[in-house]
Design brief:
Elements lengths: L4 E3 L6 E5 L3 H11 L4 E5 L2 H10 L4 E5 L7 H11 L4 E6 L4 H9 L5 E4 L4 H21 L13 H4 L10 H4 L11 E5 L4 H10 L4 E5 L2 H10 L2 E7 L5 H13 L4 E6 L4 H10 L4 E4 L4 H20 L14 H4 L2 H30 L1
Parallel strand pairs: 2-3, 2-4, 4-5, 5-6, 7-8, 7-9, 9-10, 10-11
Antiparallel strand pairs: 1-3
Helix pairs in contact: 2-3, 3-4, 4-11, 9-14, 10-14
Length: about 350
C-alpha cells in the first residue's frame, strides 16, 4: 500500500482521487492542483481510512481496482461522508457496476476513460458546488427523544401491513392528500402489482401512454415516477431527459428489459435516474426504491435547496433539437402553465389570509 499524496493549500475545496494506476493519479493531480487541495491514493482501503479522518468535497474513483472496486469504495464513502459527492471513473462497460453505482451509492456522475479534461473539470466543479450546497443545508441530527413517531407507533396497524417509514413520517400535503406515484407502463400488470403493494399509503396512478402522463401531471403533484421503457428508444430517453429538466423534483425509477451500459450511463448523467430495476420486477425491491424516492422527495419539499442533488446535465443540442423533443415541448409547456396557475392560486390563498 502506497502512502497517499496530498497537495494541501489553504481553504481550497478538497478532492480525493483513487486509481490503481499511478500515472493516472499524476495526471489528475496536474489537472486540479492549482485550484483544489488534491489527495491521491492507489489503494481503496487507504481511501476508506482517509474518509474517516478528513473531509472531502468530492471523491473520484476508478471502478476496476485489484483490492476494492470503485462501487465498493463509494459505498463506504456514502456511509462515512454522505455529503462527499461521488463520481465513478471507468474504462469498462460493466453493467452490474453501473447498476450498483446508481442503486447502492447514488453516484453523481459517470466519467469514462480516456476522459476529456474540459468535461472532467466541469463535472468536478459542479460536484464541488453541490457538496457546498449540501453542507449548508445539512440539518442537525435528531435526538432519540425528538425523533418523529411513525404512524404505526400512534395507530395500531393490521399485521399484514408493511411498514414504509419514509411514507409514514412524511409531512402531510395540502388538504391531507397522499403522496402520488405514477406508474408509466403500456400494460397494466406493473400498475396492478404496485397498487396492491403500496395503495394503503400512497396514491398510485397509471399512465399507459405519454398523453396519459401529461394528463396526470396536470391534475396531481407527482413525486415519484416508475417508468417501464425501452432503453434503446430515442423517444423514451428524450422524454425522461426532458422530464428531469422541467421537473427535477420528480424522482424516476426506471424499469427496463435491456441494460445497455452505454445507455445507462447516458441516463444517469443526462436524466439523473434515481434507481434502475431489471425485469422481471421484484415488488419488494420496487417498494423499497419507491420508499427511498419518497423520502428524498419529502426532504426536497422541506428544503428546496436540495433539488440540486437531482438535477441532470443540460441536454445536448442534438437531443434538444430532436424531433422527439419538439413533439414533447408543447406538452411540457402546457403542464408548466397549469402548475404555475395552481401555485398562483395557492399563494393567493395565503396572501388573503
Amino acid at each position: 500500500m502506497t502512502s497517499p499524496a496530498t497537495t494541501d493549500t489553504g481553504d481550497k475545496p478538497s478532492l480525493l482521487f483513487v486509481d490503481d494506476e499511478p500515472s493516472i493519479l499524476t495526471a489528475l493531480r496536474v489537472v486540479f492542483r492549482s485550484a483544489y487541495n488534491v489527495t491521491v491514493t492507489t489503494d481503496g482501503f487507504e481511501a476508506v481510512e482517509l474518509l474517516k479522518t478528513k473531509k472531502f468535497d468530492v471523491i473520484v474513483s476508478d471502478q476496476r481496482m485489484p483490492t476494492m472496486t470503485g462501487v465498493e469504495l463509494l459505498r463506504h464513502a456514502f456511509d462515512l461522508s454522505p455529503n462527499t459527492i461521488r463520481v465513478l471513473l471507468t474504462g469498462y462497460s460493466d453493467t452490474d457496476a453501473i447498476l450498483g453505482a446508481i442503486n447502492d451509492v447514488e453516484v453523481h456522475r459517470f466519467l469514462q476513460k480516456p476522459w476529456d479534461n474540459v468535461k472532467l473539470k466541469q463535472t468536478v466543479n459542479e460536484a464541488i458546488e453541490l457538496s457546498k450546497s449540501l453542507a449548508k443545508t445539512a440539518q442537525p441530527s435528531t435526538t432519540p427523544s425528538e425523533a418523529p413517531k411513525k404512524l404505526a407507533d400512534v395507530v395500531p396497524l393490521p399485521t399484514q401491513h408493511r411498514a414504509h417509514p419514509a411514507i409514514d413520517n412524511a409531512p402531510p400535503l395540502p388538504g391531507g392528500e397522499k403522496e402520488t406515484i405514477l406508474i408509466v407502463d403500456a400494460k397494466s400488470n406493473l400498475y396492478s402489482q404496485a397498487k396492491s403493494e403500496l395503495s394503503s399509503k400512497v396514491d398510485v396512478e397509471h399512465a399507459a401512454s405519454i398523453t396519459d402522463v401529461f394528463n396526470v401531471l396536470e391534475q396531481k403533484p407527482v413525486c415519484t415516477m416508475v417508468c417501464s421503457f425501452d432503453v434503446q428508444s430515442e423517444a423514451d430517453r428524450t422524454f425522461i431527459q426532458m422530464l428531469k429538466k422541467e421537473h427535477p423534483y420528480i424522482l424516476v425509477v426506471a424499469v427496463c428489459d435491456s441494460t445497455d451500459s452505454t445507455r445507462l450511463i447516458e441516463l444517469i448523467n443526462q436524466a439523473k435516474i434515481f434507481r434502475f430495476i431489471k425485469k422481471p420486477v421484484s415488488m419488494s425491491l420496487l417498494s423499497r426504491y419507491v420508499e427511498s424516492a419518497i423520502a428524498q422527495a419529502v426532504e426536497v419539499r422541506n428544503n428546496p435547496a436540495l433539488i440540486r442533488k437531482h438535477q441532470a446535465e443540460e441536454m445536448t443540442d442534438t437531443v434538444a433539437n430532436s424531433v422527439a423533443a419538439r413533439q414533447l415541448r408543447d406538452h411540457f409547456n402546457r403542464v408548466n402553465k397549469t402548475l404555475a396557475s395552481r401555485l398562483s392560486k395557492f399563494l393567493g390563498f395565503f396572501r388573503g389570509n
